[in-house]
Amino acid sequence: MYISHFYLEDFKRELKSRYIQQRPNTNVLNHLSNDQTAKAEIVKYVVEWVKKSDRSALPTHFHVQWAMESIGYAFSLNIDQHSTIKQAIEIYTHWLNYSKLDLRPSVIAEEEGFYQREMISHFSLLFVERGGDSKRHAELCAEALYAIRELIRTQNLEEITWGHLLKIMLIITNGLLRNKSSMAQDLCPLLLKTLFEIWLRSDTRDEQLWTELHSGFPYWLGHMWLVYQWNTVAFALTERVASIIYGDEHPYLTLKFKAFKQPTEEKDEHLTLPFTTEQTIFFWAKFMNLVLKNMPQRTPADPEVHRKLAKRIAEFTNVFLGINERRNLPRVFQMPNIVKASTPASLSQLTKEFQETHFHYLWGISRLAVPSANALLRIFGRWLFYYARSKDKFIDECRAHAVGALCRIMCRGSGPVGRQYVALFYKTIFECVSTDKSSTLKAYIAKNSMSLMCSELEGINVLLFEGAITEILNTGLDHSGNNGPKFRTPFYYILSSFVGTVHLYENDKLKKVVSGILLDTLKWETDENNFFRLVWSISVFLSTLHADSELLTEILRALVERLSYIDCMKDHRIYKSLLKVITTLPFLLNSKVIVDEDLVTEVIRKICCEIKNKLTVKKERLLSSLLYTLLHWLVCFPYAALNTRSTALEVISLAYKIDVIRDIANYAYDFIMNNLGKQLPPLSYTAYDSLYVSTGSFSFHQIKLGGKHFLMGGRFLLSFYDSSQDNPDHEEILLVMRNPMGKYFWKAELVYSKEPQPKDQLQLSMAVHPPKPQPRNSGDSEQKEGLDSNLNESEQTLFQELKSTMEAQEKTCNAFKEEVRFEDSHFRVNSQKEFLPKSYRLLLTHLGLFNQENLESLIALEGQELKTKIIELDSISDKECISLPVLYLKTPESKDTEVLASPDYYSRMFQQFLPQLGVLLDNSHINIGIFSQVASYIRSFSSVLYTSHYYYELVSLFPGLIPGESTLHDLLKEREIVVMWNERANDPHSKKFPSLLEHPVLAKKVCILLTPLQKDLVKVNIWPRPKRQDSATEVIDSGPLMNDMLVPLYLLGSLLVRSVVNLNDNLKGRISGRNRRLNIFRSLEEMGRKAEATKNGKLSAILSHAFKTN
User: What's any GO biological process attached to this entry (predicted)?
Assistant: First the structure.
């Protein structure tokens, strides 16, 4: 007798179950009487008697079976007779326990299986609801389940007994869990836990039992604990399957059951079962199908069950995606140990293929073995797409988990993804965006799609074209929605990922929507991490605007306006981020768009106003940064500087009164007065195989430290070098002007010709006509006018010659007035040689240094001490020299030896990227003056890439240009930033980070990883990454490049250089260099004054130095 075969009517029907044997000679009490009271009394007496008796009281099978008629009937008694029921449970618990032989009749051991099946059947009667105290009833049922659980954990059951037990458990579970009674709710956790444990231990392959479990499962979904307990089993099997395929096989399956308090308190339990590979794969498929194939045919009515179930399915996908994430980390790939001992012949070929795939990757002939998006979608796609596209408004969170899982698969799963899945995914996103009016679903999409726009999904741009992504951003970044900072973070990641590519689509509507989002969020965003992403996204967006001056004007004004409304003390990190962006923008805009002069003037004036307002704060770092910002705008837009020069100097004079920033104020003043407009000759970008820079215009040749040197006003050292002494008709000099801000090179070339050149061929910075002969007045009064009384006769003669030259030049210039032009940082002078004893003397007169007004501040310098001072002066650079190693990685597994070797081939995109880092310098450029600071790099590495601006020089060290042997340590030592180009030649769809990132020499360094994608786009990653994938904490505190950003190839170089320069900015170092140079100038002035004291007069000393032959 058992739960559905107990009453007399049941025994009249033929039992058709092949799992439970029919016994007509049982159920004696029901046949004897209908009096429930009498039967209860009999049962109570027999149970108590058996409980008190020893094992000898039931010596034969007949006696045992006779006693079991009453004990089994006890489980059908009303709950108010719980004492008798409890004693019956205790009796059967002892009889089922093989270790307690002294407590059970000896004959049971003779037919162990038969008695086990009978007792299990009798236990099932207890699970019939009968009213009364449901809590007490559930506790009694729990005792019976504990007895059964003890049985399966301690004894090896016969196959027929396993079938019998499974069938009985199915009947019990179906009877209880198809309704939501109080008893069913209380008993559900333990009942399902026991059922699933029995199922696993039985190792049943009986298709009929699996079919009954499969068909009954959907009807149990009204109970949340079904989701919990099924998930425990299915999740453990999923992890085990993943380890079999991708990692080490373990002989045990570990189930982590959740604690519960009903019907009795049970703590968390980790249950370990011995499981073979074949068992694992078989049971994983069966248990997964309980949900994946049962639903959506029948769905739970409780939305919370929907939500939990969807969340658990999403976690299964994460098991496989976690393998992707771990294997894509920058680690050297380790061959997993796939054990074959437990693998049957039917699976041996499959496990062999698993192992060969890993070996092939190590040999470079196969892709990295990671779960592909296609494989995951074949398993989970039908279920996920169904719920993600469901229109049921009661399961919004279920939809959210489903679409979130789909987004993660698309972002993290190995590609390429099949077109059918991609198309269905896009359709799902559009449906979610158009039908969901709340922010929940869009938030799940954003949270799991932060790198979606950086993925290589075919046609991903359709999400932008059709407005799906912008609609998601508008919802998540809506200020009226009161969304918290963490909620908004993923939306900013999505925005920053594609903001640099908007202009490529040539879609004015899209550009307008994106700019609207940027402008709107700029007004109210207050979270420092989100604000950081926002403002640097704006900077990248602005750098892509080529002709839209109205949009540029609007955004630029908004940035500067926002700065004035931020409390620099309370929100100092927000203020710092925005100020850094405003400081960087001139360099991004200057070469990209023609910025309206009035707009730049307005920005500079507002910066000056902001400095005035912040002077009362008296914070050194803050005020220094503001002054630094001002200098950047002035140097990048010198035409606007002319309109704002007085305003800037006024602000600097106010800043000078504050002690903590007096040095920076002095530096700013000198910069505006002496350094503004300083430009190097243009260094143009060329193809990689023809990188060069001309040396002729800059070479010192045999100049070295010779020449003539004059100190002007105690702050300017003018050095003239004659570089063409062998050609009497073609003189060339180099003028090096040194001041406290640095040194400047001017080349002057004098070409003598007897016939004047046509005007259109002069190419002069100052046009000069041949002078007409002038009558000389030899009167003594004119000759002596303005002469130094201490001049001797020979000096007077020289002076008259010089005076004649000056007069001729003055008359010529008066006769032909043309605007002075500066071309390519050099000027060329044509004149007739008869007036010029030496070219640098003419240059002195052109500079106006021989008039009486300037003479007093001019000091002639010479001697060995001067040479020492010049060397010391030139050793103090006016620029920061930044070195940047650039490594080309053919594959993510490339080792340091491969990186340092010169490969035979570089990709087209890399060859287009490399020249953006500058021009090629080699040993032929070591002695060129403007490259003096990078000469040490050229000596060490033979060839470097070089670019320069007014306050920095960037030297890129690329192993492919370095001949000979070098080590990674030599290349990377003392360098904080490294650039890696991850070509992925072995797998264009690989998401693996280069294993080289874990090299010890890269510890504590920031690595900017560049991964080329299709359509000349490059994905940027910053390593090390944030600790959590959704963390907003940036690895570096500067931009414009950020983690998971997509950048057009043509724009990559400028953004990379600016990011590197921002990270290495050292204003204090430049101020210190200026102060050191000032001290040298003071010593030069003192040295010159002492030398003059030994001369007869000022002009005598100057002329003696100028006209003396070296």
Answer: regulation of small GTPase mediated signal transduction
Cα R_g (the chain), whole angstroms: 44
What does the buried/exposed string (b/e) look like for 1055-1064 if buried means 16 or more CB atoms within 10 Å of the residue's CB? Answer: bbbbbbbbbb
Cβ–Cβ < 8 Å for 222, 300: yes
Other beta carbons within 10 angstroms of residue 437's beta carbon come to 10
- Residue 548 DSSP symbol: -
pLDDT of residue 262: 73
Per-residue pLDDT reduced to its tens digit, 260-318:
877 777 888 899 998 888 899 999 999 999 998 876 656 666 778 888 888 899 999 99
Amino acid residing at 658? I
CB 781 within 8 A of CB 1091: no
Query: 415 and 451 in contact (C-beta within 8 Å)?
Result: no
Cite the DSSP H helix spans in 716-792: 780-784
The reported pTM is 0.80
Contact 175, 3 (CB under 8 A): yes
Contact of 465 with 503, CB cutoff 8 Å: no
Alpha helices for 860-904 (secondary structure H) = 864-875, 896-900
What b-and-e string marks burial along 569-604, b requiring 16 or more CB atoms within 10 Å of the CB? eebeebbbbbbbbbbbbbbbbbebbebeeebbbbbb
The Cα 53–Cα 63 span in angstroms is 13
At 296, the amino acid letter reads P
Contact criterion met (CB below 8 Å) for 631 and 667: no
Helix or strand or coil: residue 994? coil
pLDDT for 541 equals 95
The third-level CATH classification (topology) of the domain covering 877-1065 is: Rossmann fold (3.40.50)
β-bridge pairing 952-957 and 944-948 = antiparallel
Distance between CA atoms of residues 441 and 403, nearest Å:
8
The pairing of strands 742-752 and 730-739 is antiparallel
Return phi, psi of residue 128, to 5°.
-90, 125
Is the Cβ–Cβ distance between 285 and 214 less than 8 Å?
no
State the Cα–Cα distance between residues 814 and 802, nearest whole angstrom. Answer: 19
Cβ pair 151, 169 in contact under 8 A:
no
Q: DSSP letter at 416? A: P
What type of residue sits at position 80? Answer: D
| Structure token digits, residue 905 | 């081939």
CA–CA separation, 195 vs 193, rounded Å? 6
C-alpha dist (Å) from residue 83 to 54, 262, 360: 20, 20, 68
Q: Rounded distance, CA 1023 to CA 602, Å? A: 39
Question: DSSP 3-state assignment of 1045?
Answer: strand
**Cβ within 8 Å of residue 126, ≥6 positions away:** 75, 76, 85, 89, 140, 141, 144
Q: pLDDT of 875-906, one tens digit each? A: 887 788 899 999 999 989 888 888 887 767 78
Q: Where are the domains of the chain?
A: 8-243, 708-775+789-872+1093-1107, 877-1065
Sorted by sequence, the CB contacts under 8 Å of residue 906 that are 6+ apart come out as 688, 888, 914, 960
